[in-house]
Amino acid sequence: MTKQEIFNHIEESLELDENTLKEETVLDDIVEYDSMGKLSLIVLSDEEFDKKLTGEQMEEFKTVGDIVKFLEA
Amino acid sequence: MNMERQWTDKTILITGASSDIGTSIASELDALGAQLILHTSSMNSAEALQQRFGQRHRVVTANFSTPSALNDTFKEVLVNTKVDGYVNCVGVRSRRPLKLLKPEHVSEVMTINFLSYLEMLRIVTKRGRFNEGLSIVAISSIAAQSGGPGVTAYAASKAAVDAANRCISNELHRKKIRLNSVVCGQVNTSAYEELMASKTDQEDKVLERQFMGLAEPEDISDIVLFLLSEKSKYMTGSCMYADGGYLT
Q1: Does B152 contact chain A (CB < 8 Å)?
Q2: What does the alpha-carbon distance between residue A28 and residue B216 come to, in Å, rounded to a whole number?
């Protein structure tokens, strides 16, 4: 999966328009990154990337780039 | 009344016996001398159950994802055995916001949590498979009675179980069969640990409302045993809350 596709997955999960997120976008600045948005990311990570995303890991994410790094790894 | 003698004459079927709540119920009943039929879904957990509870009890493997296959397994199990109690502890959790609630996912949750339970009721309550006074207990959840973000599929499946118990209690009264639900709050189980590992910030709020704290599996099995026993003989189609105050 390309980096762009990962970005698009995250945008879809958070119900954002395509190509609105950048690596340096700060998660606290995204209104849609609330508890339901986080839940969507957990499902995305599990279903599309076969990775268990824990609450602890999520707390360490500061920017969209951190999420992309986690999903890519 | 000598309770121990009473249990030694009884056979209890527990589906989902390898769950923490199922195992707790099985332990209490085993200690009281009841005969058990323990169901689980995988060969590994079946071996673990047989090892833990010994050869005195029967262990059965069946997949609750395929309700139509349950009859073949259980009609053979119940051919020479009549049950006095049936407890269903099978349940899959689901946490998804609406936009991810695809029909396939909802259908999977409803199949395991509700349709298979309904199919088990059809199997167990067939003439000749139970003794007079059969008591059926379903493990339900506060989600069925209240609600919360992301738990739609799970809540709906448990609400369906409670609704089925209410309706079927009317139908099976003349067969002297009772059905009740135990509406559980958060219980200290491996499923709860998994939930907390991927918690967002909703989960802490549950325990704020559940002001008596997390339940232990034994808190639930004590209530299940009461519902299985004749001490609850005037109760059917009801929900007993074991929620540590959550629904107050």
Answers
A1: no
A2: 36
Which range of residues forms the domain containing residue A38? 3-72
Contact (CB, 8 A) for B4 and B29: no
Contact between A15 and B196 using a beta-carbon 8 Å cutoff:
no
Q: Which residue of B has its CA nearest to A33?
A: B200
Structure tokens at B158: 């448990």
List, for residues A43-65, the tens digit of each pLDDT value. 999 999 999 998 889 999 999 99
* Number of domains forming the structure of chain A: 1
Query: What's the pLDDT score for residue B158?
Result: 98
pLDDT value at B3 more than 50: no
Contact check, Cβ <8 Å, A35/B99:
no
Are A55 and B99 in contact (CB < 8 Å)? no
Q: Which of B100, B150, B198 sits opposite A55 (nearest CB)?
A: B198
Give the ipTM of the model, two decimals please.
0.74
- Which element (helix H / strand E) includes B180? strand B178-184
Q: Tell me the pTM.
A: 0.91
DSSP for B156-178 reads HHHHHHHHHHHHHHHHHGGGT-E
The residues with which B180 forms a beta bridge, in sequence order, are B137, B238
Residue pLDDT, tens place only, A4-31? 999 999 999 999 999 999 999 999 999 9
B59 has which bridge partners? Answer: B38
Give the CATH number for residue A9.
1.10.1200.10
